[in-house]
Specification:
By secondary structure, this protein is mostly helical. It folds into two domains: 107 residues, no CATH class; 154 residues. It is built from twelve helices and no strands. The longest helix is centred in the middle third of the chain and has 62 residues. It is globular, with a radius of gyration of 28 Å.
């Protein structure tokens, strides 16, 4: 084995070891790093315009970073205040219901309804008296709910410091990526040991996939939030503004989606107001989701990615499981880059086969 071969193997081995150690170092900060990279990609066209207007790259990057911080912090504070107010309102309503004999009313309904009477007869055969056990179950459920709420609030305050640190780290990384990102991009592109056309195919696939998926997911979830929020407001569902934001948020996920919000809202509307209004809400939400998912989302998400629908779905679902919310965009990007690398390898391998023949 010649010296040049040994040097190459040593460099590759050292590079692999150092890359693994770098991964271990950056792993605790992987989520803010991924978010900063995604935001830098989204804001790159804006960065180009800002630099053209300000004639200073650092000032342009700092301006966009500060605006991003304000846009994120102000709605977060508003949502936190709204959530606290609504949680307090729900607690007061539950306390008033219990004070007005709400548990006794539920018990009477359960004992005198057909289902309740049948269940009572079934439990009597097992020597269980439902009129004695139901108050105990209600008390245990109340205690469990209270303990869960206390634990959730306590965990939220414990994680607040971690969230603030991650958010600050994300803003710092975003600033440097906006300012120096193009240099990082060209350096990485130059270091990639591929032919020029293969480099173009890989990096273009990454760019198109990220832009298509982000545009499709973000825009369609926003549209669904607006449409379903309008239906909630018209049909008289309380807290419709908060539920609209929740609808837009869960619309990003591949499982459940907006039904996680509007199905419980329709059930509440049916019991509290009228099943006719509940039917109107369900019909409107089904229509909105059908139109967005079958006409708008495929045009925005699928166009330009070059990925089959199944690969796109698995990339979104698997990325969500592996990386959390940033995986919604990182998963399809990984699959697209892998497909481009496989095509480049296949082309190079076939070329070597032809030269050997």
């Amino acid at each position: 084995m010649d010296r040049e071969r040994i040097v190459q193997m040593f460099l590759l081995g050292s590079l692999a070891v150092m890359a693994y150690e770098l991964y271990r170092i950056l792993y605790p900060f992987l989520v803010p790093i991924v978010w900063a990279m995604l935001l830098a990609f989204i804001f790159h066209p804006l960065m180009v315009r800002a630099e053209h207007l300000m004639h200073n790259r650092s000032l342009a990057a700092l301006s966009i970073t500060l605006v991003t911080a304000l846009v994120a912090i102000v709605p977060a504070l508003w949502l936190s205040t709204m959530l606290a107010a609504e949680a307090h309102s729900l607690y007061n309503q539950a306390y008033a219901l219990a004070g007005q004999g709400g548990v006794s009313k539920v018990q009477d309904i359960a004992l005198h309804s057909r289902i309740g009477m049948a269940l009572s007869r079934l439990l009597m055969r097992l020597h269980i008296k439902i009129d004695e056990e139901l108050p105990k179950v209600a008390l245990q459920a109340t205690r469990l709910t209270s303990d869960t709420m206390v634990g959730y609030v306590t965990g939220t305050f414990k994680n607040l410091l971690s969230f603030v640190i991650d958010f600050g780290l994300m803003l710092m990384i975003l600033f440097y990526l906006l300012r120096d990102g193009e240099g990082y991009y060209h350096a990485l592109r130059d270091m990639t040991p591929l032919h020029e056309d293969d480099k173009h195919a890989v990096f273009e696939s990454l760019r198109v996939t990220l832009s298509s998926v982000m545009r499709g997911l973000l825009v369609t979830s926003l549209i669904q939030g607006v449409l379903i929020g309008a239906g909630l407001a018209v049909t008289g569902v309380p807290y419709w503004a908060f539920l609209s934001l929740a609808t837009a948020a869960v619309g990003l996920f591949p499982f459940g989606g907006t039904a996680l919000v509007w199905v419980p809202a329709a059930l509440y509307l049916g019991f509290a107001r009228s099943w006719i209004w509940a039917g109107v809400l369900v019909g409107w939400c089904v229509l909105a989701v059908t139109v967005v998912d079958n006409f708008i989302k495929p045009q925005l998400t699928g166009r330009g990615t070059g990925l089959p629908t199944l690969a796109l779905f698995l990339g979104i679902a698997g990325g969500l499981e592996a990386y959390g919310v940033p995986g919604l965009f990182a998963g399809p990007a990984v699959i697209a880059v892998l497909a481009s690398l496989l095509r480049a390898y296949n082309k190079s391998y076939n070329q070597l086969q032809r030269e050997a023949a």
